[in-house]
Design a protein that fits this description.
The chain contains 14 helices and no strands. It has helices spanning about 5-25, 30-50, 55, 65-90, 95-120, 145-180, 190-205, 210-220, 225-275, 275-285, 305-320, 340-355, 360-365, 390-410. Helix 9 (about 225-275) packs across helix 11, helix 10 crosses helix 11 (about 305-320) and helix 11 packs antiparallel against helix 13 (about 360-365). The chain starts with a helix and ends with a helix.
């Protein structure tokens, strides 16, 4: 990860911090989960922000300063906040507070121990992250810094493992609850929460490669371990894991908006796909239109939901008007096959144009309805006895496929 990417990650975390801070300022101050989530975003933003100035932080295998120690402490703080948040989610309310307090007390002692060990290490000279560039230099030559590394890396590895396991467990628990209560498709935020937790769990698992590489660098360099080769792997793991963590923990904030945008795009795609069938029907039965048609489908974006429903209703009205010609094309009708359905419509329209059959007065009357409902489906559903539709989305998908088949054969 280069400095600009650290800056982008920090900015994303600061935005998430501001978004979670607003509910606290509006009165949810007593919710420990929201407080822990807000603090986790703030700590991670600080960690990434402090990682930007390369001239201060040094390199992965260079001399360690107090600035590096502060960056690592912010990482420990992020793990502590994430664990408190997950404890609030995965434990009953009565037990969550005690478990969270116990975790906080343990993790609060880690920065103190790290600071004391690093102070002692500085009294023996400038601590080094690696011994590969120092021939004859062994870990025993700076015992306090080795102890500092053990405390930091062990805490980091344990924290990442606990966070990853808790994220995956809560995502599974949430999915089981949704499945048992039949809530699928009702809460986009819940869906994105589960996706985000699984992404964060994957990020924590990937980041575990970093402390393993650092342990090897500290204890195996004096035995011929080439830390330069592992540096690419450890840095890449840290980068990928950090990206997955940011995406996972912020997913509930932006996921619902992504779902809404994708749903709008799908609706506009379906609206355009319905046009060939709609045009053919309204040319044959102009009275199904309640208002003059648009010159281009782009005009429907101002109120896409209404115009999509209106187009489906008008197509269904056109279907009703074709009932008078159903016997002429009876052998072609198959509501389970879009090609045969499109062929039935084309034959019925051709029969009407040729004057072989005439629409009955009743069908013309029914096709001139003025139903302006922006939602729902008209009473005249799919006239195919074997097919029909369960909901509006399924009806739109079916009609869109029929329209595409009709356009391919008769466009």
């Amino acid at each position: 990860m280069t400095n600009p990417w650290y800056l982008v990650g920090s900015l994303a975390c600061w935005v998430a911090f501001a978004c979670t801070l607003m509910p606290l300022l509006r009165g949810y101050r007593r919710d420990p989960a929201v407080i822990a989530l807000c603090a986790a975003f703030g700590s991670q933003a600080m960690y990434l922000l402090l990682s930007v100035p390369k001239r201060w932080t040094g390199t992965l295998f260079g001399t360690v300063t107090w600035y590096n120690v502060s960056v690592q402490m912010w990482m420990i703080a992020t793990l502590a906040c994430q664990q408190v948040l997950l404890v609030q989610w995965t434990h009953p309310v009565a037990r969550a507070r005690a478990v969270a307090l116990r975790r906080m007390l343990v993790l609060a002692g880690v920065p103190t121990v790290m600071a004391v060990l690093f102070l002692c290490a500085t009294l023996q000279g400038s601590p080094h992250n690696s011994f590969i560039d120092l021939p004859g230099y062994r870990p025993a030559d700076q015992p306090f810094f080795v102890a500092y590394q053990v405390v930091y890396l062990a805490t980091l590895a344990t924290g990442k493992a606990l966070v990853g396991r808790a994220c995956w467990a809560f995502a599974r628990q949430s999915e089981l609850y949704v499945r048992q209560n039949g809530l699928y498709g009702q809460q986009h935020e819940g869906i994105w929460l589960r996706r985000g937790l699984r992404t964060a769990a994957a990020g924590a698992a990937v980041e575990l490669l970093y402390p393993l590489g650092r342990f090897a660098d500290v204890f195996l360099a004096s035995h011929g371990w080439d830390s330069a080769q592992w540096a690419v792997v450890s840095r890449s793991a840290l980068t990928v894991g950090m990206v997955l963590n940011i995406l996972g923990w912020t997913a509930p904030l932006w996921g619902a908006r992504v779902s809404a945008a994708l749903a709008w795009c799908r609706a506009y795609r379906d609206y355009r796909r319905l046009r060939p069938l709609w045009c053919a029907l309204h040319r044959a039965y102009p009275r199904i239109l309640l208002q003059p048609p648009f010159a281009h489908d782009i005009a429907a974006v101002r109120d896409l939901r209404f115009y999509l429903h209106r187009r489906v209703i008008e197509i269904r009205d056109g279907y009703l008007a074709l009932e008078g010609t159903a016997k002429t094309a009876e052998g072609l009708r198959d509501g389970r096959h879009v090609e045969r359905e499109a062929a039935w419509i084309a034959t019925a329209l051709a029969a009407r144009r040729a004057g072989k059959t005439a629409s009955s007065e009743e069908a013309e009357t029914r096709s001139s309805r003025t139903d302006t409902r922006p939602a729902g489906v008209p009473d005249g559903t799919n006239p195919t006895p074997d097919a029909g539709f369960q909901d509006f989305s399924a009806d739109v998908a079916w009609l869109a496929e029929v329209s595409r088949a009709y356009a391919r054969a008769h466009g």
